[in-house]
Specification:
This protein has 260 residues and is an alpha/beta fold. It folds into two domains: 196 residues, 2-enoyl-CoA Hydratase, Chain A, domain 1, CATH 3.90.226.10; 46 residues. Helix content is 45%, strand content 17%. The protein has ten helices and ten strands. A hairpin with a 2-residue loop joins strand 1 and strand 2. It is globular and about 60 Å long.
Length: 260
Amino acid sequence: MSYKNILTDFRDGICTITINRPDKLNALNQETINELHDAFEAENNDPDTKVIVITGSGEKAFVAGADISEFADFSVPEGEQLAANGQNVLFDFVENLSTPVIAAVNGFALGGGLELAMSAHFRVASDNARMGLPEVSLGVIPGYGGTQRLPQLVGKGRAMEMVMTAGMIDANQALNYGLVNHVTSQEELLPLCYKIAGKIMRNSSVAIGAAIKAVNANYKDGVNGFDVEIKEFGNCFGTEDFKEGTSAFLEKRKADFPGK
């Protein structure tokens, strides 16, 4: 599939999706959001893809935010629909993929850019990364899940300060906050992500998908995460990966998971 605003590259079980709008600092317009949905969906449905890495082109920005020119004159109902569609099509969609998603955050990750990074399963940042939710400086609030995911990751007080001040934090502060898992140089950003992806791919993709579902359940209103864990744990016993994993352990050999 060909795209206008993103690039995809598949190598050795890892698909790298690159947002490619460098002249706009990779800002998210609706067309890009829809293309990202299509790319994530295609890779999640491809059994050969074990890990997805999402990043931005160039050295200046992961995603500098949403394309404000698209919605500056929206009405109240249009604004609500914009947020609802974005969350459904991309941000919630990415969070709930069964294929692990790593955000490789290079440069600015602001507004919708930070919200996209937070929807990934975890984040790795280059040392030039700058992150923030500046929406209140425009008279609006984060609308793509930022007010929900940021407190989950950094705590309520820190999230409130970041949102209210509309300020940015650097990569080391993001690491200290728990917003990112690792900080490295720009040159080593993707290699480090691929190294982590390699560790992930040694394990059962079926079990990883079940673990993602169970972990996410803890953050959903009205859902008992323990019950989901019990159900997913039980489901694992009916998979070929479980049979292979336990057999390999007992036979003292490396498992060769079929992904089923």
